Amino acid sequence: MTKRQNYKTMCPMNCHPTLCGMNVSVEDGQLASIKGDDTNPDSEGFLCMRGKAAHEIVSNHLRLLTPLTRTKRGSEDWSETTWDGALDVMATHMQAVGREAVGFWQGHGNWANDYAFGLKRAQMDRFANLYGCQFWNPAMICWGLGGFGVGITGALETSTKEDLSANSEMVILWGANTVSQAATLKHVEIAKRRGARIVVIDVRRTEASALADDVVLVRPGTDAAIALAMIQVILEDELWDKAFIEAHTVGFEALAQHIKPMTPQWAEKQTGVSHEQITALARSYASSRAAMIVIGGSSLHKGNNTWDAARTISCLPGLTGNFGRPGGGIGPRHGGRSHGAGFVDLSAADRRKPGRYIPNQMEAIIAALEGGDVKVFVSIGSNVLSSFPDTNRMRAALGKADLVVAYDIFPNQMIREVADIVLPGTIWLEEIGAKSTNTYVHLSDQALPAQGDAKPVYHLYQGLAQRLGVEDVYPWDSQEDAMNAALDHHATGHATVASMRANGGRAALKVSPVAYPDFRFTTPSGKIEFYSQRAADMGLSPLPTCTEPDGEQGWLHLAHGRTFAHFHSFYDHARALPTLAAREDAADLWISLDDAKERGIANAVEIEVSNERGAFRARAKVTARIPTGTVWIRDGWPGLNALTDASSVLPESALDTFAFSVGQSNYGAHVMISLLQESE
Fold first, then answer.
1. Quick count: other Cβ atoms within 10 Å of Cβ 279?
2. 3.40.140.10, 3.40.228.10, 3.90.10.10, 1.10.238.10: CATH of 143-332+518-538
3. Strand ranges in 429-474 using DSSP code E only, listed in sequence order
4. Alpha carbons 600 and 346: distance in angstroms, whole number
5. How far is CA 147 from its chain centroid?
6. Residue 99 in contact with residue 130, Cβ under 8 Å?
7. Which end of the chain is more exposed for a tag (fewer CB within 10 A), N or C?
8. pLDDT tens readout for residues 322-350
9. Would you call 552 exposed, middle or buried from its count of C-beta atoms within 10 A (0-12, 13-18, 19+)?
């Protein structure tokens, strides 16, 4: 008789800040079906095309199922090995180079059933702390600089999507193409039907622009200038909230003096947005009773004025008294948490061994590899060749390491080009985990046995700890016990895996839907800081500012972001999943009608995108939806980051300001576009 079992899990695509629930049916140990979970309060049964393609991960012929070792560096020849054999080689190298020359890095591939819960991230950090090796916080790949900007102002907490749909009178999607975050978009749609005004500010007419009452197209890297000019209008027109400013902010007078020359006319020259549109936007925002800004992630914070944009944007709710107000403030963003959210930290940070550690700075990591300070590099569910800028430099740096190890479920660019050892990981259905939205923590239960020799990542830490003599790395009897330890927090109501199973696979977080309901902000003063002494002490501007956009005649500004079929580099940039690979079968570069005509480029032809750092092949998407002077592409395509800038943005003095990493590189790029010759 056929035995059918049903499990609650979460979609393994990390479309944060909102995530979707799944019901999984298994018959006789084989996957029977995956459907949206109608009882999930965040997604309510919805699955986008990414979630609907998740079944293609299971039994995929491209999966890594056996540990592999490269026969010879530079070759494409691999031989099978065992977990014990691979761990022996790793431990031998680690002992030979010393713990401070070993570096661990992890990415979204490690969080397919862990995002925002953070247990698996903490377990890698725990090993690194107790062993005493290098490790870095991967927020620098994505939202770290944005978090730094809002954090300097004091606005790290975010209001929920439910607060947005129920209470916002105006919603600004600032660099946030929320079609890639469908659970958030649904609440924007609800707010619009209720009568809220929707504004999109972006470098192109995104899919989310279809919802907008107003679309503001801005030159890449100049968002801070728009926000500064909006502040100038609000002050000039005396539209600020005097009571809020007096009670809950510092530095207003300094800001008022600083901002005087930053008029909409000044901003028009930088941004390409008319001063009339900037003025109207500022007045509309300031006059709305409850206005919420949804700040985008990596697309907004890569290039010029990366953290300055978030810093300046987050001052706007402080001027208008929107913080702590239902429907106001800052909405769901990458890396944001609700007021009161949290889990128990199991990383053993207080037990980290003293040592000479490489700072959380992307350029510092590359330099450490180049200089031999890091000789063993271990990647957990990541692809640094596509996610780090200046790919050619990063590839050469990894080539200088004694040993490069990758733990993953599919081959990727890093594995193909530089890895020496590959360890096969379990997929989300083959191990237990949890994922957290802003309001709930959801169980991702194990539904299938592991295929082949795939193992959960904690097996890697256990094996290395045993060989290296590191104690207390995995003090739990099972991963379920480890989850219970992380869940034992007042924000979860001290939930357990068992209680979550009994409650339909989730626990409601004891959080406020409105950020900063107590008006105690995350700054040294406890107030919104228009003037930040903390920033000044780091050698940064204490007041929100921006730099003039750069550019030369003939060069185009490269911008990048998310699309329907893609979110981060795992699943080999979705190339391993047929449905998603078919949706985006090539790297499409958006280019304006005028820029294409000037270069003799027709729609859908093959082109080369190049600059002094490298070159990349793409397909032209000639469209009226992008302004002249800007080109746009889905980020993370293998080879794309050969074009981007790896120089640091912030000084080392700023890197430890917050618990997350802010040491992101610039990622900016100006490029030339040319038609590929048929002979190529």
1. 20
2. 3.40.228.10
3. 433-436, 440-444
4. 57
5. 11
6. no
7. N
8. 999 999 999 998 888 999 999 999 999 99
9. exposed
State the alpha helices, DSSP H only, in 175-301.
182-194, 223-236, 242-248, 252-259, 264-271, 275-287
Tokens of 153: 């102002």
- β-pairing verdict for 68-70 and 421-424: antiparallel
Mean pLDDT of 104-117: 93
CATH code for the part of the protein at 556-675 = 2.40.40.20
Average pLDDT over residues 126-136: 98
Contacts of 254 (CB under 8 A, 6+ apart): 530, 531, 542, 543
| Residue 401 to residue 297: CA distance in whole angstroms | 31
Please name the CATH architecture into which domain 68-136+346-437+440-508 falls: 3-Layer(aba) Sandwich (3.40)
Position 15 scores a pLDDT of 82
**Lookup: tokens for 536:** 């000044």
Is the model's pLDDT at 575 over the cut of 70? yes
Average pLDDT for 578-607 = 95
Instruction: Write the DSSP symbol of residue 678.
Output: T
Which candidate, 40, 320, 331, 50, places its Cα nearest to that of 174? 331
Could you read off the pLDDT of 473-500 as tens digits, one per residue?
999 999 999 999 999 999 999 999 999 9
Exposure class string for 217-249: b at 16+ Cβ within 10 A, else e: bbbbbbbbbbbbbbbbbbbeeeebbeebbeebb
Based on the number of CB atoms within 10 Å of its own CB, is 283 exposed (0-12), middle (13-18) or buried (19 or more)?
Answer: middle
- The confidence score (pLDDT) of residue 179 equals 72
Given a cut of 80, whether residue 432 has pLDDT beyond it is: yes
| E-strand stretches of 475-601 | 506-508, 528-529, 556-561, 588-591
Asked if 199 and 211 touch (Cβ cutoff 8 Å), the reply is no
Q: What is the predicted pLDDT for the residue at 551? A: 65
Task: Let me know if 367 is exposed, middle or buried by CB neighbors in 10 A (0-12, 13-18, 19+).
Answer: middle
At 62 the pLDDT is: 97
Residue that is written with structure tokens 């500022």 in the block? 282
Question: Taking the domains of the chain in order of start, what are their residue ranges?
Answer: 4-57, 68-136+346-437+440-508, 143-332+518-538, 556-675
CA–CA dist 475, 419 (Å, integer): 30
Is residue 643 classed as helix, strand or coil in its secondary structure? Answer: helix
Residue 140 confidence class, pLDDT cut points 50, 70, 90: confident
Asked if 373 contacts 358 with a C-beta cutoff of 8 angstroms, the reply is yes
For 434, the token pair is: 């949890």
User: Distance between CA 595 and CA 608 in Å, rounded?
Assistant: 14
Q: Which amino acid is located at 376 in the chain?
A: V
Residue 18: per-residue pLDDT: 74
- Which amino acid is residue 302, in one-letter code? K
**Fold type of domain 4-57:** Phosphorylase Kinase; domain 1 (3.30.200)
- Alpha carbons 456 and 430: distance in angstroms, whole number: 8
Sheet of strand 197-202, all strands in order from the earlier edge strand to the far edge: 214-217, 197-202, 170-174, 291-295, 329-330
Residue 453: per-residue pLDDT: 98
**In a 3-state reduction of DSSP, which class is residue 673?**
strand
Half-sphere exposure of 288 (CA within 13 A, CB side): 29
